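Below is how a single chain appears once it has passed through the pipeline. First comes the sequence as given, then the structure the pipeline wrote out for it. We keep one example in the README because the format questions we get most often are answered faster by looking than by reading.
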Amino acid sequence: MYNHVRWLSAGKCMERFFAIRKEIPAFLNEYVSSDTTELERKLKDPEFLRQLALLRDLTNHLNSLCLSLQGRNQTVSDLIGKINGFRNKLSVFKHALEKNNLTYFPSCLQLAEEFNSEENIEFSCCSSQIQQVIDEFNIRFEEIESLKSGLLLYNNPFGAIIEDQLPDLQIELCDLQADMFLITRQERGPEFFKLLSKMFGSTYTRESAFSSMKYNKNHNRSNLTDSSLRHLMRLSTTELEVDISSLVDEADRPQSSH
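Resulting structure:
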């Protein structure tokens, strides 16, 4: 594939690679005919193993974030909350590493315990690498701050100060905050905006729909019509469970004459 969608799988490969790091030099020495001295030396070098352990743990944290951002029924507010939560975690990770506290880095902790009897492996110097990740997140998500007022309005429109909102929203907010029916409702977020016949969602539904369309067009293009494609797209983006077997049986059942 020509994109980074497989990075989650790459993280799993790294996890497995770290788990069998002691067996790999023995395998290279016994089964590989070419000179693997440099590779074997790397896999026994404390500095290389330290970087490998840190990368493995950091990749695991990033993969967890990536997985949490996937799925339906997530609003922009939900996604930004998870991203900002991870940014806070990065600061915690950095301060922990500065004190050589490996609580949040299980692979680093395992490596430190293995080398404890031979030599002390310090991870405090790796805090600068966490700072690089923090800086990268700050650059990539700097526009989040500009969305804050809109998200606060979305999460709690009844608590929003009307005069602080955009002019084209102020009149609507006047009516909304005076609506006695809506004021008594307990729903918030997407459930509340369903009452207004409006709904905001994450990009996951759009991306999954695009993937479904691409799959169907590639594999079923010989017998695919515009109508059937629309039906397939509708099925791929709905959460309603469709009993296909019952529908087929009903369609095949002869209609009784009146």
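Residues 96 and 249 are 62 Å apart (CA to CA).

See the next section for the split statistics.
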